[in-house]
Write a structure and sequence with these properties.
This protein is of the alpha+beta class and 270 residues long. It contains eight helices and ten strands. Helix 1 packs parallel to helix 2 and helix 4 packs antiparallel against helix 5. It starts with a strand and ends with a strand.
């Protein structure tokens, strides 16, 4: 069997484009992919959950890696999971049952903050700012997706990078914005992502008090090297660089994805 291929966003895009074109069967049957980052793995699983690609688990696409415990917890439909051994990786469902649902989120966010501080060693108040951004992303799933039962928030920390992914298989950014009269004529997924990332823009109109909750992300990434990928419909908005902001954003045509996915990774700029 050939050596596993690293699972990158480019790999995920290629698999999804091939699936949409009905060309996956022509791929080598023994090809396997090694998850090395959280974002591409969650996006592949997200596409599979929406029926856009075959299940990578059932298809045997994924090579054994440190992601196995998280994958097992996801398959078991756990509402919240954080790696018991090192607490460097975890996820939480947007919908949780029981009276301790809010407490679960608080504990999860505290684990994420400790991982950003103690493992990736992000400086000063940055871990807290990033956790505030994570909380906004989780709120965003409930407020805008119309499918919070599909929502998930995840993190992963290594010595080199801290990653956050939020995803849902809801109505997506374009349909959400179209519910507002100001955006009723919007017909492009890429422009919808751009609009949603602007301060105060949401289906409730251009109200600085309401939005899709993205501003805390940029605040948390100040002075950090960041790579951001926002996916909805048939577009991705990509930002890369130190103290990333919308001025450096690029739109790219991508395979169709259901709902919305945000993947953020960052590291100290030294």
């Amino acid at each position: 069997m050939n050596a596993p291929i690293p699972l990158t966003f480019g790999t995920v895009d290629g698999l999804a484009f091939a699936a949409a074109a009905g060309r996956l069967e022509s791929a080598k049957q023994d090809t396997r992919y090694l998850p090395t980052s959280l974002g591409p793995l969650i996006e592949l699983l997200h596409l599979a959950a929406g029926g856009r690609v075959p299940s990578p688990v059932r298809s045997g696409w994924l090579a054994d890696s440190g992601a196995a415990p998280m994958m097992t917890a996801l398959q078991n439909d756990d509402e919240c999971w954080v790696g018991a051994d090192d607490r460097r990786t975890g996820f939480i469902r947007a919908n949780r049952t029981g009276r301790d649902a809010d407490a679960l989120l608080i504990a999860f966010l505290m684990d994420a903050q400790r991982a950003a501080r103690d493992v990736t060693r992000l400086p000063g108040t940055t871990p807290g700012q990033l956790v505030a951004a994570m909380e906004e992303l989780e709120n965003n799933i409930h407020e805008h997706s119309d499918a919070s039962d599909t929502g998930i928030l995840a993190f992963r920390a290594t010595e080199a990078v801290f990653e956050v992914v939020a995803a849902d298989r809801g109505i997506g950014i374009l349909r959400s914005l179209q519910r507002c009269a100001a955006f009723a004529g919007l017909a492009d997924h890429g422009k919808a992502i751009q609009a949603a990332l602007s301060d105060g823009t949401s289906r409730f109109g251009n109200d600085g008090r309401r939005g899709h909750g993205f501003r805390p992300i940029f605040v948390g990434l100040a002075n950090l090297r960041g790579a951001l990928r926002f996916r909805s419909g048939d577009h991705a908005l990509l930002i890369d660089g130190t103290s990333p902001d919308l001025a450096t954003a690029q739109l790219a045509q991508k395979p169709v994805i259901d709902g919305f996915l945000a993947s953020i990774s960052c590291s100290c700029s030294h």
